[in-house]
């Protein structure tokens, strides 16, 4: 499975996890980096599960995807939490 296909497949999950992280860290000031780490760890688990079934190259796939996913998490947060 190509990394672009994986990235587009997990985009809804990432957006959902951003919301979960926002609730999990509610009331904790300056927790942005912890929220992002939470989302990235959850996403890495899903990507690992998906790629182990399809290719077996989890580490290589995550290495290729972690940068773009990190940017996507930042963009999702900026869009979803514009007023905060």
Structure description:
This protein has 84 residues and is mostly helical. The protein has helices at 3-24, 32-54, 58-80. The longest helix is centred in the middle third of the chain and has 23 residues, at 32-54.
Supply the key terms.
84 residues, 81% helix, 3 helices, mainly alpha, single chain
The value of Rg in angstroms is 13 Å
Q: Which spans of ≥5 residues are poorly predicted at pLDDT below 50?
A: none
Number of separate structural domains: 1
Terminus-to-terminus distance: 37 Å
| Morphology call | elongated
Q: What is the count of helical runs?
A: 3
Helix content: over 70%
In percent terms, what proportion of residues is strand? under 5%
Work out the oligomeric state of the chains in this entry. Answer: single chain
Assign the structural class, choosing from mainly alpha, mainly beta, alpha/beta, alpha+beta, or little secondary structure: mainly alpha
Spell the H/E element sequence: HHH
Total strands: the figure is 0
Average pLDDT, rounded to a whole number, is 81
What does the main sheet amount to?
none
């Amino acid at each position: 499975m190509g990394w672009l296909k994986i990235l587009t497949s997990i985009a809804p999950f990432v957006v959902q996890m951003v919301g979960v992280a926002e609730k999990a860290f509610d009331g904790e000031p300056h927790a942005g980096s912890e929220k992002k780490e939470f989302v990235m760890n959850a996403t890495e688990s899903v990507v690992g599960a998906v790629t182990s079934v399809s290719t077996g190259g989890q580490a290589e796939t995550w290495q290729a995807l972690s940068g773009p996913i990190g940017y996507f998490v930042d963009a999702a947060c900026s869009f979803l939490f514009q007023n905060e």
